[in-house]
Sequence to fold (134 residues):
Amino acid sequence: MSLIQWDEAMSVGMDELDEQHRELIDLLNESYDAIQRHDETLMVLLIDKMRDYSMVHFQAEEAVLRSLGYPDIEAHTKQHRIYADKVDEFRRDMLVRTNLSQVFIFLSRWLTNHIMHEDRKFIPWLPETDDEGA
Ligand SMILES: [Fe+2]
Fold:
């Protein structure tokens, strides 16, 4: 079973970022799955992939926010860093942890909350698209 699922309510109004959020959610779900199946090799592989992809995504999102002149970029960037640090910390001692599933539940809640409540705050700064103006 999936840990989280992307839905329209999580859209930040920009295809590129929505696509990246979906990919991040997929990676979280796949990693969680590997944990449930106690597949350590796959776990390590997927978590590294998720960590790398988080960095790529955060950088892309921060570049968008900068280009929009989004005023809260500093606080937003700090939140990304907290998540990245959490994933790093988890990655470092994942093989000696016993509560892997809980860590993933925490990460997925954090990500859902961040997308719904922090990322969606920049929607008013996005340039209007055709369907919005119609
Ligand atoms: Fe964000």
